[in-house]
Amino acid sequence: MARIMVLMLLSLSLISILPLLTTAMFHVKGCVYCDTCRAGFETNATFYIQGATVGIRCQDRKTMNQVFYTEGVTDSTGTYNIIVENDHHDHICKTVLVKSPIAWCNTPDPGRNRSSIVLSHYKNGVLNHLHYANSMGYLKDEPLPQCHQLLQYYLSDSDI
Q1: pLDDT digits (tens, 9 = 90+) for 79-93
Q2: How far apart are CA 23 and CA 128, in angstroms?
Q3: Distance separating alpha carbons of residues 11 and 16, to the nearest angstrom
Q4: How far is CA 138 from CA 23, 106, 109, in A?
Q5: Which residues touch 31 (CB under 8 Å, ≥6 apart)?
Q6: pLDDT value for 20
Q7: Signal peptide location in the record (predicted)?
Q8: What is the pLDDT of residues 60-72, one digit of tens each?
Q9: For the domain 24-155, what is the CATH superfamily, name and number?
């Protein structure tokens, strides 16, 4: 009797995760900011950009040809939520900055203008459909006046 119960529970658990394994849909989430100090990272003076356009690009691993592309726009908190259908297990996928709606903060930070993401469940053990991408940023044309003092604060604990 116990063996039958264990088999039934195992069957039910497999049935409940089967849709996750067969449905290849991913929810990619991340944010876009304006680096007002041109520091190359988020600071206390950073603000998040509403209306920024973000793309998701996947390339074939062997040919490097683009095989998938879609776009989304950030909300009032600078966060984008993009749904991607299909598993991209043999592709190199990245989120990329496309366009900033702010004229004085529209230069992509070369070190923070893209983020690699894994859009696959293939042999990696990841069942979650929500995938977070690293924050990406644009550089303000001119740093804010208080940035020098703010950056000194950030560097005060370093050994530089």
Answers
A1: 999 999 888 878 899
A2: 11
A3: 9
A4: 35, 6, 5
A5: 48, 74, 77, 78, 79, 80, 135, 136
A6: 47
A7: 1-24
A8: 999 999 999 999 9
A9: Immunoglobulins (2.60.40.10)
Q: Specify whether the CB–CB gap between 93 and 118 falls below 8 A.
A: yes
- Please name which of 129, 133, 89 lies closest in space to residue 113, comparing C-alpha atoms: 133
In tens, the pLDDT along 96-113 reads 999 999 999 999 999 899
Exposure of 157 in the CB half-sphere (CA atoms within 13 A): 2
pTM of the model: 0.79
Domain boundary assignment for the chain: 24-155
- 6 has a pLDDT exceeding 60: no
Token pair of 71, please?
A: 């776009």
Amino acid making up residue 45 = A
Going by their DSSP bridges, the two strands 79-85 and 114-117 should be labelled as unpaired
Q: Are 34 and 136 in contact (CB under 8 A)?
A: no
Q: Quote the mean pLDDT of the chain.
A: 85
Burial 102-140, CB ≥16 within 10 A → b, else e: eeebbbbbeebbbbebebbbeeeeeeeeebebebbbbbb
Burial of 55 (0-12, 13-18, 19+ CB in 10 A): middle
